[in-house]
Amino acid sequence: MLETERLLLRRFTEADEDRLWDLDRDPAVMRFLNGGRPTPREMVREEVLPHILAEYGRWEAYGRWAAEERATGEFLGWFALRPVSGEDFTCLELGYRLRRSAWGRGYATEGARALVRRAFADLGAQRVVAFTMTVNAASRRVMEKAGLGFVRTFFQDWPEVIEGSEEGDVEYALTRAQWEEARAEGAD
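^ thats the sequence. predicted structure below, dont judge the formating
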C-alpha cells in the first residue's frame, strides 16, 4: 500500500491474528486505550481482525494497515487513515499503534507523515485529525511532528475510567491549506 524509507504499510490478512494479538496484549501498548488490559485472543480473532478486513471491502484507499520494518520484515504495529464520519472523505482520522520495541525510534512519526501526505496529495482530504488522551505525551509529540496542531481538549463519557482520563482527550488537526503552506516553506 505504502512504503517509506524504513516502513512498509500493507493490508492485514487473516494470517496476522497472532501479530495483532501480541500487540494488543501488551499492557504498555494498551495503557491509554483501556488502562492496560490485554485484549483476549478471541476478541482479536472474532472482532478486531474481521473489522479491519471488512474496511478493505468498504473503502479501497482507507483503513488500517500493518506496519513492517522494510529491512527485516518485522511487524511493528499498524497505522490507520479513515473517514471521521461515514463516507465523508474530506476529513480523515489518523491513527497508529506500535509495539513497545518500536517506540522511540521515529517509526510513528515516519508513518504518520506518510499518511498525512497521502491524505492531502493523493486522496483529496481537506483536513486530517487525530485524537488521544491528554496525558499521552508521546502520541501528542507524534501528532505535532506529523504537522498537526492542537485544536482542543474535550471530555467524553467512557464506559470505564482509566488513569489520566480525568484530564480529558485532545484533538489535533491539519488543514489542506496549512499542509500546502508548510510544503511551500520546505517542511514535510
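The two ends are 20 Å apart (CA to CA).
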